[in-house]
Write a structure and sequence with these properties.
Elements lengths: L5 E5 L2 E3 L4 E9 L11 H6 L7 E6 L2 E6 L5 E6 L8 E8 L9 E7 L7 E5 L13 H9 L11 H9 L8 E8 L3 H11 L5 E5 L1 H10 L6 H6 L2 H14 L5 E7 L4 H13 L4 H10 L4 H17 L6 E7 L18 E4 L2 H10 L5 H13 L4 H13 L6 H9 L4
Parallel strand pairs: 2-8, 9-10, 9-12, 10-11, 12-13, 13-14
Antiparallel strand pairs: 1-3, 3-6, 4-5, 4-7, 7-8
């Protein structure tokens, strides 16, 4: 096999020494992969390497892996693998050829007793300014690479600061309803912004369609692909099981689809008494399929048993996009943890109010927004709108903005 034409697209992963799952896909690539220049259409058309026997090198040990009929592989490691906490590269190689790296990813293992705060964020219309409401928008996204994508002003500085330093790490996970073939575009844009991430969870469209077909419900395939509440809720619950029991969480999303519904349900499951029957009835009302409901109920019970943090969800931030949400209105889904925001400045101030970041990071976000082309007047207007929404601006922040030079 011509190994120079084989690429292993490995996923960053987050876990603990008790367990972590490392996954990816192996494909044929005639040229070196540059995530900043890769387009989704290219990933869709890639030829997978089927049923290939490879090795995954991790923490000084070589683990055999095998791809399936679509080129995907998955390796779950646990207590018997003597894992150590920290950040380590996972490298996929050909069998018996450790000198050839087909692909690599960063694996973060938090100590089992960690009380770190884990940040989970949506991508489109939360971190990235991605129009996707129209069919023409979606078709355009398939043709664009990372250089064509734009993050909201100040988000790069905020997310870099939120994640913290290696010595004081707050793991950053992106959870999106976009298909898996947007992986390289998203990772490419994060790379350009200097934002490291610890996991990127994307929707397995083909798996969902196949599972729905196998359940003899072909007429429900489109509905299953579009459904977001159950998908994100299940992903959050599964992620909770991969975290140390005492971890806290910050959830960030937007109001264009159903982030606030999924985040509300997830928080309520962990914070408040809720019977399985009541949760199942709520999910049924929201249009979650029976099979998905059963899996969510099982995951919810496991997550509650696993959790050792008192009210672990410390903050929910929802960006107001102005997009019409025909199905959900936000008012019935409000919680004390939830704050609405318009931009990175408001979000940083809200996080500061909750004691989750310091004013130095707020100042960095302000500066990044000014460098992106906003004016001090724009930011003062944002502060005024923030106050209307219950986010207080520190007087020194207002004074700094009145003295800030325009770009």
């Amino acid at each position: 096999m011509h190994w120079e034409k084989i690429h292993a697209d490995v996923n960053n992963a987050l876990g603990t020494p008790k367990g972590v799952t490392i996954s990816g896909r192996v494909v044929e690539e005639p040229e070196r992969v540059d995530p900043t220049r890769s387009r989704p259409t290219r990933q869709i058309l890639e030829d997978e390497i089927k049923n290939a026997h490879l090795r995954l090198l991790f923490q000084g040990r070589a683990h055999p892996i095998q791809t399936d009929d679509e080129g995907f592989f998955k390796l779950t490691l646990g207590p018997d693998d003597a894992l150590a906490p920290g950040r380590t590269l996972a490298i996929v190689t050909p069998p018996e050829r450790d000198d050839i790296a087909l692909g690599r990813a960063r694996i973060t293992l938090l100590p089992e007793d960690s009380r770190a705060t884990v940040i989970t964020s949506d991508v489109d219309l939360t971190y990235l300014n991605t129009p996707f409401q129209k069919t023409s928008d979606k078709l355009q996204l398939l043709r664009e690479d990372a250089r064509s994508r734009a993050s909201f002003p100040g988000n790069d500085a905020l997310y870099r600061g939120l994640r913290g330093s290696p010595e004081d790490l707050r793991p950053l996970v992106f959870l999106s309803g976009s298909p898996r073939f947007f992986k390289r575009v998203i990772e490419g844009k994060l790379q350009m912004d200097g934002v490291e991430h610890d996991a990127l969870l994307l929707k397995p469209f083909k798996h969902i369609a196949w599972r729905t077909l196998m359940d003899l419900r072909p007429h429900l395939i489109l509905r299953a692909l579009k459904e977001q509440v159950g998908y994100k809720l299940r992903a959050l619950l599964d992620q909770r099981l991969r975290l140390p029991p005492a971890c806290a969480e910050i959830l960030i999303g937007d109001d264009s689809e159903a982030d606030f519904v999924s985040y509300h349900l997830y928080t309520r499951i962990l914070h408040d008494p809720w019977t399985p029957d009541a949760l199942s009835a709520e999910l049924s009302t929201l249009g979650v399929s029976e099979i998905a409901r059963l899996k969510i109920l099982d995951a919810a019970a496991s997550a509650c048993a696993h959790n050792r943090a008192d009210r672990p969800v410390r903050f929910i931030g929802i960006r107001r996009t102005g997009a019409l949400n025909e199905r959900f209105q936000i008012d019935p889904w409000r919680r004390p943890e939830l704050t609405l925001f318009d931009d990175a400045l408001q979000l940083s101030l809200a996080l500061n109010q909750r004691g989750l970041i310091d004013l130095d990071l707020v100042a960095s976000v302000q500066q990044a927004m000014l460098q992106a082309g906003l004016t001090p007047a724009d930011l003062l207007d944002s502060l005024n709108r923030a106050a209307d929404g219950g986010i207080d601006a520190d007087p020194a922040t207002r004074l700094a903005l009145t003295r800030a030079p325009s770009r």
